[in-house]
Each structure stands twice: as C-alpha cells, then as structure tokens.
Automatic annotation (TrEMBL):
Keyword Transcription assigned: yes
An annotated Gene Ontology molecular function: DNA-binding transcription factor activity
Descriptive protein name: Helix-turn-helix domain-containing protein
Record domain HTH araC/xylS-type: where: 269-370
Top-rank taxon, per record: Bacteria
InterPro entries: Homeodomain-like_sf (IPR009057), HTH_AraC (IPR018060)
Native organism taxonomy: Bacteria, Pseudomonadati, Bacteroidota, Flavobacteriia, Flavobacteriales
Keywords recorded for this protein, A-Z: DNA-binding, Membrane, Transcription, Transcription regulation, Transmembrane, Transmembrane helix
Ranges that cross the membrane: 6-28, 37-58, 70-90, 102-123, 143-161, 182-200, 215-233
One Pfam family it belongs to: HTH_18
C-alpha cells in the first residue's frame, strides 16, 4: 500500500470516470459497429484498473481492506483480446466475430473467478509480509502472465496496423484521413506502461525493499487514467470510413527478372503528362483505373511490376516533379513552398516534407536554396 494522496486520488477518479462515460458513449455510438464495442471495452478495462487502485487505498484507510479482496475487479486478461479485435474490426470491414473467438476471453473469465478465491486473497495479502507465502507467488505469476498476454496481443495488433498502412498505399494517394496511426500511439504507450510498471515494481521489491513505491505508484496510475480518457475521447471522435482493401501483389523472387510492360508504361506516362490526374489530392486507384480503362487490382499489379513502387509512391513522385518544375518557373515567388505543394496535389505539410525528402534527399527549403545558388 501507499500513503493516501487526495489530489492524485481525485485526478485518477476524474479521468477514470470520464473514460468510463466515454466508453459508454462509444458503445452506443451510431452507426452501431462491432469495433466500437471492443474499443469501449478496452477503455473501460483501463479505467477500471485505475479506479481499483483508488478503491483499495480508500478501503485500507478505513480499515476495510478485507472487503476489497472480495470485490477486486481488475481485468488485465481482457485488455489484449479487446485491443486485438478492435484492430481487426477497423482494418477489415468484413470481419465477423464468431463463437470460436470467445476462447480469447476465457482467461478473462478465469481471472474473474480467481479473484473470488481464497488463493487470491491470501496471495495478495502475503505481498506485504517479509516472507512471501506460496499463494503470493501464484498471484504474481497470474499477474505476469496477464502482462505477457497484453504484450503479445499488442504486438500482433501493431503488425496488423502496419500491414493496413501498406494496403492503403496500394489504393490511395492521400492517406492522412484514412490512416490509423493514432491507434499506434496508445498501443505503444500501453505496452511500455505495463513493461515499465512491472520492471520498476520488481526492482523496488527486491532491491529497495519497496521503499520507492511512494514516488511512482500513484503517479503511474494517474497517467494510466489520463491515457484511458484520451483514447476514449479520440476513439469517440473517429469517423467511420469505408476502406477498399486490396490483396498485396505477389512477391517476386529476387532472382526473377520481370520484364516491363512498355505498352502500359507508355499509356500511363501519356495520361500523366496530358491529364495530370496526380494534381487531384483525392486521386485513388479506382479513379486512375477508370481513366486507363482498367480494373483496380490489375492496375495495382502493373504499377508495382513496372515502377517497383506502390500506387502511393508513384503518384507522389509525379507530384514532387511537378513541384520542382514550379520552383523553376516564373511562378516560383507567387506562392509559398507549401502553396506550391498544394497546387501539385499534396494534402498536408507533413506528408509533403516527408515524401519530398525521401525522393530528393533534401528538404524543400534546401532544394530551393540550391536552385537559387545555381541561378
């Protein structure tokens, strides 16, 4: 236990309760989506974890700690599966939750039952004794397995998100409003939180004899409550978007030399020179396929085969060339660098700077200075 801190208790309660309210709003958000249910559960589980700490310490102050051992509601085994299924839902509109998927939540049920047993009560109380009883090791093992579960599910979720980002670039030339990168932040934060938390507590337990708990215990749960509130707020504001998912083109063997389709390249380049569709920031694969009288999937394969890059990179390379041409024209001083970028089809400053430097190995400002020196 730690010394009660009314200020931190209040902060934890405020943010945790707000997170729970947001989880309810997300669950009943219209249109009703399966993904919203899992996001609501994820936020709720984290908020519940923070509130648990306040409850246990308040009951301790009133000499009612024994009551808490019967109402413990921490549910760390539900965090990983809810994060995983939420990620599946928002990256695959056709995902269906089947009966077999309930097996992922079986450990959560067992955890709930475990907290109702004497093994838990004796084991958790034994943590405050000089010599840990056997049941305390059982309790600690259960906690560590729960943390490992969160790590595993989080890593899998990050892999799914990374593949999703790659898929977007096969179909869209503007992905700012479609990207789910905002979800990567809380995943990384939650994984780091549990890792750092467990490492610190174990170091404190075995090296400093729990003398450091006053400095990190409640502040950590305050941060957790704030993060849970933030992800709930961010998730509630997210708009539902229908994304067309294409299967990535088959990878060619490194030893296989693929011949370029000169007819396709000629037709593609002629379209880009004459109609300049890349100037449209909303250009996507379906729109380009329509202009070339092709279907999206074969076009995606043709682009990867002939350019060695995906649709996103190819279209943005044309935008970079258009930008460079504008800087070499008489119109250079009529607009700012960002203004020229927008005229060339870019949608955001960050994307423009990233793409430009990736292609030219210079920032736009450095490129302009080089032009001025050369002229």
């Amino acid at each position: 236990m730690v010394t009660s801190n009314p200020i931190l208790f209040t902060l934890i309660c405020v943010f945790a309760v707000q997170a729970m309210i947001l989880s309810g709003l997300i669950a009943f958000k219209r249109p009703r989506r399966l993904g919203n249910i899992f996001l609501a559960l994820l936020v709720f589980f984290y908020a519940l974890m923070a509130l648990n700490i306040v409850l246990v310490n308040v009951l301790k102050d009133y000499g009612m700690l024994h009551v808490f051992r019967y109402i413990q509601m921490e549910m760390i085994y539900g965090i990983g599966p809810t994060l995983y299924f939420y990620t599946k839902c928002i990256t695959n509109p056709k995902f269906e939750f089947k009966k077999i998927h309930y097996l992922h939540f079986l450990p959560l049920l067992l955890e709930f039952i475990f907290y109702r047993t004497a093994i838990y009560r004796i084991g958790s109380d034994g943590l405050y004794l000089e010599e840990l009883p056997t049941y305390s090791y059982v309790y600690l093992t259960q906690q560590w397995i729960g943390v490992i579960s969160i790590w595993v599910y989080s890593i899998i979720s990050l892999v799914i998100l990374t593949k999703y980002q790659t898929q977007l670039k096969e179909y869209y030339s503007k992905i700012e409003n479609l990207s789910l990168k905002w979800l990567q932040t809380p995943i990384l934060v939650f994984v780091s939180y549990h890792f750092i938390w467990r490492v610190i507590t174990e170091i404190d337990r075995f090296v400093f004899d729990k003398s450091l708990r006053e400095y990190y215990f409640l502040p950590n749960f305050t941060v957790l409550a704030v993060i849970a509130c933030w992800i709930g707020f961010k998730g509630y504001l997210q708009k539902e978007r229908e994304v067309v998912h294409l299967k990535p083109p088959e990878k060619k063997s490194k030893n296989t030399i693929t011949e370029k389709d000169e007819a396709f390249l000629s037709k593609f380049k002629q379209l880009m020179e004459n109609q300049q569709p890349y100037l449209n920031p909303d250009l996507n694969l379906a729109m380009l396929a329509n202009l070339l009288a092709m279907k999206p999937k074969p076009l995606s394969s043709k682009i990867n085969q002939n350019f060695g890059h995906n649709f996103y990179d190819v279209i943005n390379s044309y935008r970079v060339e258009a930008f460079k041409e504008r800087l070499q024209s008489a119109e250079r001083d009529k607009l700012s660098l960002l203004g020229h970028a927008y005229e060339c089809g870019f949608y955001s400053k960050s994307t423009f700077n990233h793409v430009f430097k990736k292609i030219t190995h210079q920032t736009p400002s450095e490129y302009l200075r080089t032009l001025k020196k050369a002229s």
